[in-house]
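Q: Protein A?
A:
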Amino acid sequence: MDIQFARHRRLRNSANMRAMLRENHLRVEDFIYPIFVVEGEKKKNEVSSMPGVFQISLDLLNEEIEEVVSLGIKSIILFGVPDSDHKDEVGSGAYHDHGIVQLATRQVKEVYPDLIVVADTCLCEFTDHGHCGIVENGQVLNDPTLDLLARTAVSQVKAGADIIAPSNMMDGFVAAIRHGLDEAGFEHIPIMSYAVKYSSAYYGPFRDAAQSAPQFGDRKTYQMDPANREEAIREAGSDLDEGADFLIVKPALAYLDIIRDVKNNFNAPIVAYNVSGEYSMIKAAALNGWVDEKTIVMETLLGMKRAGVDLIITYFAKDVARWLKEE
């Protein structure tokens, strides 16, 4: 057969050859593991819509952290879930020095001071209306919310948080938090901004875990329209100008094009949030025997790395850490 063609298969003909030429890799250092901390004692409540994910009370938190550290995971992100009677219209539990996130942070840093603690900096888990800011006449107010976010960030850092991760999508939230941290003497604390956060149906299971569903309306006036692409560049650019150190894109799986756009446009660490709906779909399919969980999880997370992310916030972190150890 006298024809000319490329022999690409030469570079795939053995496992070692494929490993040698692999362009993207998953490392345990790439993962940030989310933990939901609740008030009370002896609580380890599995989230019904997120098999394998639990709400954990402070007295059982050390056991969870010990497992995380033993697997080689270097970073966690803490979400606080207060009792309903501790919620109010301004989310004061978010910035109280003895709030659930602050208590959990102090406890973690006391036992494992080198573990990186990222604090979710938002109000929605702590407000009685479930929105990410101050509400007046049914409207979420932007500017009055900024001061509360800054107060929350400062309180979290005083408790020992290494990174602040504001997720509220108020205009100017990074600038307000950066100013608040600097004024309090925390110029060295980085901000991992939820810079590109879409108003997504993929968040449903998270709202079960964090008990943070809005009590009226939705979050479309402050989270982004899933139809928009160029808006992501404007949002990310603003956050960097205001002092962000990391840029989060959330969700990840349906927004890989956005991740690549952000990576191509900005020289900053890019973080993908592999969100609850993405996790739950794979878990449900695996529990039904429809997919091979390990293979599909690894492929999915590699897709995020290939799209350009440096770090991945994922509920699969412990599973993947185990699989990587086995390999």
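Q: Protein B?
A:
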Amino acid sequence: MKLIDIGANLTDPVFRGVYRGKRAHSDDLGSILERARGAGIVGMMVTGGSLEESERSIQLCRQNEHLFATVGCHPTRSGEVNKYSGGADGYFAGLRRLIDDNRDKVVAVGECGLDYDRLNFASKEVQLEQFVRHFALAEATGLPLFLHDRNTGGDFARLIKENRHRFTGGVVHSFTGSMAEARELLGLGLHIGINGCSLKTEENLAAAKSIPLDRLMIESDCPYCEIRPTHASHRLLPAAGESLWQLPESRKKERWSSECMVKSRNEPCSTRQVLQVLAKLHGMSEEDLASQIYSNTLRVFFSNVRHGL
């Protein structure tokens, strides 16, 4: 079985044992990557949410042949673009240089898009302005888009329609919308990424099941978006003994062990749980669904990148 986690925020300090600026335990990123391999995850896309974070993502990816980066500016970070010393032009020139200098490691432009649930971080006007700039970056580099869409009242779909000719393809990750919203995105030629937050309610499960298998991708979006006992999807997880793989034991960070996950700190290995839920929804084996999703991911993000995945 081969899986690719399309959304892993591995530059977050919690993966080095630091929480809110304070060290709680040793750096355990190596153990986290080992657990991911044990879950069948052969590759990960490390999310770049700003110029500085994209730089750190690439640095991390240079240390592991199974890691690849996205380069862009998350909508909630878009307020920093015009404040950059070189202005917006300088900021996006910096993103372009990162891509051009690391074509063997950068597989997508993003994370970019719109998020109207968190306008306290960046206004609607600023988000719209900086999202549009990513289409030019995708057009210039030929890279697909790694997209964010949250409660945008049609603005996201409108901008995708207006600029669809400028990029090859892409995925709307961490999808939590309705079946109608999924149909709209699919009609724009996009893929949809599912994680634990995509599977909270029965309505979420119905929307996830409606996505054609050849448009489906999966992710952890770690350290966020784990499947919790309160989620509708939790009942679809296999019981002990029903699957060859179970999520590793987790402990509070105060009782940290390199052999265990940390409670409430999601990891890439949980992508396997997302697969288990989706396989149950579709009434098919994990292996067959994994093969389809793996093929989708390679086709969109890795067709022009040398890789050993």
